[in-house]
Amino acid sequence: MNLMMLLEMAVAAHGERVAVQCGAEALRFEELFAASGAAARELQASGAAHLALLDVSSLAAPIALFAAARAGLPYVPLNYRLTGDELDALLERIAPAKLVTDPERAARFSKRAGVSVAAREAFLAGARAKRHAPAWPDDPEGIAVLLFTSGTTGAPKAAVLRHRHLVSYVLGSVEFASAGDDEAALVSVPPYHVAGVIAILSSVYSGRRIVQLPSFSAEAWLAAARAERVTHAFLVPTMLARIVDALAGRSGADLPHLRNLSYGGGKMPLPVIERALELFPEVAFTNAYGLTETSSTIALLGPEEHRKAAASADAAVRRRLASVGRALPGIEIDVRDEEGKPLAPGAPGEIYARGPQVSGEYLGRGSQLGPQGWLATRDGGFLDEEGYLFLQGRIDDVIVRGGENLSPGEIEDVLLEHPSVAECAVLGIADLEWGEAVAAVVVLAEGASASGDDLRVWVRERLRSSRVPSRVVFRSELPYNQTGKLLRRVLRAELAEATR
Fold first, then answer.
1. Of the candidates 3, 166, 137, 128, the residue with the CA atom closest to the CA atom of residue 71
2. Top-tier CATH class for 306-396
3. What dihedral angle (degrees, nearest 10) is formed by the CA atoms of 326, 189, 199, 248?
């Protein structure tokens, strides 16, 4: 079991189809297969133990992913937004490594010990050379991909995804050769995110053409989707929100070929998805929830569930539009208390998951799975009576006010129902009397107005008084990283500084 098995099957089924394109450049499936073989032979000759990619999306990304698999080495896509010192620290941990990067960085890292550097174009030229391709190892326990976490509370951890984890996800979630020759998937998430890796593997296995968008903007995404007749796409919530904003004042998106739009990677504000359903009335929406450590998606809210919830007059059914759906086949999801005991439906706690695609392993730290294979995700949430999963933020973000645990997500959901609120983040701030107090950072909708007192009254009318923000701060925007994750640590630092 090796990732190359997926590409080999795709070549046998539709080798002449275009597999991936970036701008005017493209590779057919058979060309991607040959390029991975040539790059793997060069990789083996380099003596490297890892193949790292430090770049935006390009044809180098899928070649590097499959070349590493063919050479029996881990593929390590690095975050190109990191500082030089941060990148040096990561490269030190994976040396000896071959690094594929842009020309500017290639010059910078060219003299670094333990790193063999290839500029993107040189790597692509080498991959197009005719070389004897090595056979790939058929070891399901081999490490396929290492993905470094964002490192918000210390040094980044390297999540280990073995071949069996990724192949299990693809085989269990994607129908082989199911894509028609007219189908195209627009990939705008960066290659260092697990969604970027899964987008390549899933599209290859289904036979769907990948259209790469190296740099996201709402306007560029809409233009690419129209020009390439894109049928499928994945977005993080902040991306979809910007696309919805870019279509303000229009009755539709004018994307007649778009059939499926998946989103995930963060909490989706209910007003955004409701507006998106109006703008894309013929599009099948899917909300996907997963983690790097689970090889991507473990729960899904499907297209029929989206439309059913949006049209329902039943409040319990309608609120499922804000859920992440139910567990995928082969995946078990549980919600537990602080002692690890399962909770009843509706009771909030920590989300646990297990299944063949769940890794829960970090390089140098070993497996973090429990004795029965359960992964504690550190995400908070609850399950309803029908098994729909609702997220409430990270467990570490829980606000402890006077001994009472408050969920930021619960308060955020109420604030987002206010017609003047476009975005918000709720977090705990130091308080001498209560230990922590509730603070809300709010972005108002364009042209709207509201005061802190207005929002406090709004929350008080809908939740217990302990959940009412004692402090409301207005900002023009919230800080997110490139994959749509809200940077609460930045907001905490700003609020702490303001109180000094």
1. 137
2. mainly beta
3. 60
Strand, coil or helix: what is 176? Answer: coil
Tens digits of per-residue pLDDT, 13-31? 999 999 999 999 999 999 9
Strand partners, 390: 382
CA distances from 486 to 25, 152, 393, 441, 482 (A): 34, 11, 10, 12, 10
H or E stretch at 101: strand 97-101
Task: State how far the Cα of 187 lies from the Cα of 58, in Å rounded to an integer.
Answer: 11
Is the link from the previous residue into 96 a cis peptide, with omega within 30 of 0? yes
**One-letter amino acid for residue 428 of the chain:** G
Q: Select from 3.20.20.70, 3.20.20.370, 3.30.43.10, 3.40.50.12780 the CATH code of 3-305.
A: 3.40.50.12780
Strands of 158-162's sheet in order across: 115-119, 97-101, 50-54, 75-77, 143-148, 158-162, 361-362, 366-367
What would the pLDDT profile of 309-367 be if each residue is shown by its tens digit?
A: 999 999 889 989 989 999 999 999 999 998 899 999 999 999 999 999 999 999 999 99
The answer to whether the beta carbons of residues 183 and 208 sit under 8 Å apart is yes
- The span from the CA of 61 to the CA of 54, in Å, is 9
Residue 410 to residue 426: CA distance in whole angstroms: 9
What is the sign of the dihedral through the CA atoms of 403, 350, 493 and 157? Answer: positive
- CA within 13 Å, CB half, 182: 5
CATH architecture of 398-498: 2-Layer Sandwich (3.30)
Q: What is the pTM of this model?
A: 0.87
